[in-house]
Amino acid sequence: MSNRMWGGRYASGPDAIMEEINASIDFDKALWRQDIAGSRAHVAMLAKQGIVEQADADAITKGLGQVEAEIEAGSFTFSRSLEDIHMNVEARLAEIVGPAAGRLHTARSRNDQVALDMRLWVRDTVDQLDGQLRELQSIMAEKALAFAGAVMPGFTHLQSAQPTTFGHHLLAYVEMLGRDRGRLHDARRRMNECPLGAAALAGTSFPIDRHATAAALGFDRPTANSLDSVADRDFSLETLAAASICAVHLSRLAEEIVLWTTPQFGFVRLSDKFTTGSSIMPQKRNPDAAELVRGKSGRVIGALNALLIVMKGLPMTYGKDMQEDKEGLFDAMATLSLCIAAMAGMIRDMQPELKTMKKAAGVGYATATDLADWLVRTLKMPFREAHHVTGRIVGLAADRGVGLEKLELAAMQAVEPRITAAVYEVLGVERSVRSRTSYGGTAPAEVRKQAKRWLARLKRE
Ligand code: ARG
């Protein structure tokens, strides 16, 4: 049998392989809520404009309610021969309402319909991710406030650099997640134009009111060019790009958690709820959730790349290639959502090992910069010279196998005679972090201020 929706000129139905490659219902059924919402707004507008009779519109609206209830209840039968969600919903509507259902598709095409559904879906998902990210930020900012003074090593090149605090480190990620949310907000703002009414590509000869449907569906305005409306998926690309950057941030934090939970580092302890054991090695507490967040970021980045490649050679306007926009996007958004949830759970229960971190903070001559700064401040030495002098003192300490704070004064004075015992005051890690009071610096008082600023802001958002 030829297709009821478009098979007027067809003598036969599609080959089984044609149906297999063509059907998208197995994944685009995820769009059912958006599809029904779009149809409701469309038919209400058609009636208001006198394009369909009010009685038909009422029957269609009622029928859509029944379709919605059936899908919600799980009693709806999705059919592959009906290709996609749009035709599945409409075919069932026709069974419920009769021939009047056929009026719903007046002044509409699946091209503007799917563009609309996707925008609505991405918009909903962005809002949900934003809420999750806000929650994760709150958890991290609370932890940062509690551990603003917990000294830990700061690294560059993964080599001991300068002491910092656990709170300061967590707030670095709060900032990154804040920018991730900003990118999602930007994407949302740009995508919030309604493509419905672009029809197949050129608009329609019916006197539709695109401003009305746009407003009814919560859009800021209708899109201004019908060709662009059905041809682009940049809203998905932009969201995937923002999601990819966010996934990279989560992956870096995950990598740090993996490192921190090794017995060699021992900086933090994850709860039992977020670790797994080994079937052969009884001592193991593996940070699988963190490893999976790190691993799953690849899927999100992959989805962005896949869609960029799908889109890059398409002539205007719609091409069926664009049906390939869905699976990767859906998977990427679900993956990111799961990763945020896992990270929130891990961080909420995570216990920093304060003694271990503090001890590690002093390893590797991490207060050498404090010594150089002391020489600049106290002896008025130019920084470059102070750097050199400090380097020689570090060399002496390394030869003797001691930390700077354990190196005797005479040894330091052999390098620079003007050094006094007062220098030892700046060589401890506590003192080092407390001294870094510049705006955004690692001093616990500054970290507390920033954590409170975030917590107040997050409460308002
Ligand atoms: N399932 C299709 C998609 O996702 C819907 C649009 C189909 N339009 C068409 N003219 N065949 O892209």
From TrEMBL:
Keyword Protease among UniProt keywords: no
- Location of this chain's protein in the cell: Cytoplasm
Question: What are the Argininosuccinate lyase C-terminal domain coordinates in residue numbering?
Answer: 365-433
Pfam families per UniProt? ASL_C2, Lyase_1
- Coiled-coil parts of chain: none
Q: Which domain of life is it from?
A: Bacteria
Output the InterPro entries linked to this UniProt entry. Answer: Arg_succ_lyase_C, Argininosuccinate_lyase, Fumarase/histidase_N, Fumarate_lyase_CS, Fumarate_lyase_fam, Fumarate_lyase_N, L-Aspartase-like
Please give the pathway this protein is involved in.
Amino-acid biosynthesis; L-arginine biosynthesis; L-arginine from L-ornithine and carbamoyl phosphate: step 3/3
Asked if the keyword Lyase belongs to this entry, the reply reads: yes
Give me the reactions it catalyses. Answer: 2-(N(omega)-L-arginino)succinate = fumarate + L-arginine
Fumarate lyase N-terminal domain mapped to chain residues: 8-302
GO-annotated molecular function: argininosuccinate lyase activity
Which CDD domains has this protein been placed in? Argininosuccinate_lyase
- Could you tell me the EC number(s) of this protein? 4.3.2.1
What keywords appear on the UniProt entry?
Amino-acid biosynthesis, Arginine biosynthesis, Cytoplasm, Lyase
NCBIfam families this protein is in? argH (TIGR00838)
The family note in this entry says: Belongs to the lyase 1 family. Argininosuccinate lyase subfamily.
Output this protein's name.
Answer: Argininosuccinate lyase
Species name: Alsobacter ponti
